[in-house]
């Protein structure tokens, strides 16, 4: 990009969330201006300060629902070169208790946002999807041609439905809309500065935030959900990737869309390596020198045994692959946990 040309503005919905905030930093580092939209239903205003500390710029944060066209009107005061859509509810368990909210916010919200983007002539959209669309895929590594199986939860269904919706919007836009669908495996970690990270409200349901809070003494020992799975150590296997690597993939996807106007494609984002729950515990202990208090427990309903990505398409087409390993991700997650506590305590 030329030195003095204005930085293209990129709309980031869910911009105060875990992945959105790290992507805002990556966008800035690649010469874009991230414009954050977040109604703060599951995030905090203070995230903006964290992003500002890292980037050294003032960040635009609009605290509105991106699906509310009227509230969004002022956000479009200047044109956007692209949009990255993260805003969604993301708890598998919650979605089974409150499916109507998930259908309305995730699917309805995406439909309402896409209508605005098309009306405003925004030409590139990057969408935050999940490996959950594959269900219990056999065998791993899973590439993008693996079938998407009937979703095990309303949350999973909303990701599948949104992918379908993006394909239909893309077709309706007749070459004027480019779409990159990104299927994440398990994002963990935090920015190494510890200015931003994951901020789950209440008791975390995901492994790494629960683990760090447990080591910090804020929660009872970690329960390993099942040690009788048909895996080498009996615990479930996932593909854990650093959130900063994931953030960089969004920039790579945007740049790919810029180079291929009107394209549409889907990419798996993971390390390509599976780690068991016990591997994560041991890697954390090695990275930090601390012990993880834990006990074996029953399987968690709905968990799949093992899944990891074949990320070779993202490498080939986007020039992206992960650069940070599991220990680095866990060390960064721990630094972030300590930083939140020093603020709160
Ligand atoms: C799930 C979803 C994923 C979604 C993510 C976001 C599926 C298959 N995956 O990931 O799409 O984006 O939630 O919330 O639906 N574990 C423990 N003890 C704990 C917590 C977790 O042993 O206290 C284990 C789980 O059994 C699992 C692994 O840790 O094997 C990872 O769990 P978690 O972090 O919740 O992510 P997923 O369930 O893989």
Question: Which key terms come to mind for this protein?
Answer:
seven-stranded parallel β-sheet, 345 residues, two-stranded parallel ribbon, binds uridine-diphosphate-N-acetylglucosamine
Q: What fraction of the residues are assigned to beta strands by DSSP?
A: 15-25%
* Parts with pLDDT < 50 across at least 5 consecutive residues: none
What is the count of DSSP helices, taking H or I runs of 4+ residues? 11
Give me the strand/helix succession. Answer: EHEHEHEHHEHEEHEEEHEEHEHH
**Through-space gap between termini:** 44 Å
- Overall 3D shape: globular
Q: What small ligands are held by the chains? A: uridine-diphosphate-N-acetylglucosamine
Rounded to the nearest angstrom, the radius of gyration is 19 Å
Number of strands: 13
Q: Structural class from helices and strands?
A: alpha/beta
Q: Could you give the order of strands across the largest sheet?
A: 3-2-1-4-5-6-11
The largest sheet is: 7 strands, parallel
Helix content: 25-40%
Task: Summarize model confidence as the mean pLDDT.
Answer: 95
């Amino acid at each position: 990009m030329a030195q003095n040309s204005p930085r293209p503005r990129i709309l980031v919905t869910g911009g105060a969330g875990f992945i959105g905030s790290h992507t805002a930093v990556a966008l800035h580092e690649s010469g874009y201006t991230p414009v954050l939209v977040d109604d703060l239903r599951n995030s905090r205003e203070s995230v903006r300060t964290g992003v500002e500390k890292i980037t050294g710029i003032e960040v635009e944060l609009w605290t509105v629902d991106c699906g509310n066209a009227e509230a969004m009107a002022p956000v479009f005061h200047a044109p956007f070169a692209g949009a990255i859509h993260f805003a969604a509810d993301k708890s598998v368990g919650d979605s089974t208790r409150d499916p109507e909210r998930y259908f309305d916010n995730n699917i309805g919200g995406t439909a309402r946002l896409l209508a605005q983007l098309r009306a405003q002539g925004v030409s590139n959209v990057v969408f935050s999807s999940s490996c959950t669309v594959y269900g219990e895929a056999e065998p791993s590594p899973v590439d993008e041609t693996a079938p998407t199986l009937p979703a095990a939860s309303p949350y999973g269904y909303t990701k599948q439905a949104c992918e379908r919706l993006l394909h239909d919007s893309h077709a309706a836009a007749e070459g004027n809309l480019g779409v990159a669908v990104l299927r994440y495996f398990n994002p963990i970690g935090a920015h190494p500065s510890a200015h931003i990270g994951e901020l789950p409200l209440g008791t975390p349901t995901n492994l790494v935030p629960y683990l760090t809070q447990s080591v910090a003494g804020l929660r009872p020992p970690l329960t390993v959900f099942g040690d009788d799975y048909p895996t080498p150590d009996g615990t479930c296997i996932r593909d854990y990737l650093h959130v900063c690597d994931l953030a960089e993939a969004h920039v790579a996807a945007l740049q790919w869309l810029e180079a291929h106007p009107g394209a549409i494609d889907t990419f798996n984002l993971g390390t390509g390596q599976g780690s068991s729950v016990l591997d994560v515990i041991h890697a954390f202990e090695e990275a930090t020198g601390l012990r993880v208090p834990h006990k074996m427990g029953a399987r968690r309903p709905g968990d799949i045994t093992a899944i990891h990505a074949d990320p070779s398409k993202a490498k080939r087409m986007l020039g992206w692959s992960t650069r940070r390993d599991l220990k680095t991700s866990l060390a960064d997650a721990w630094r972030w946990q300590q930083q939140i506590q020093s603020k709160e305590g």
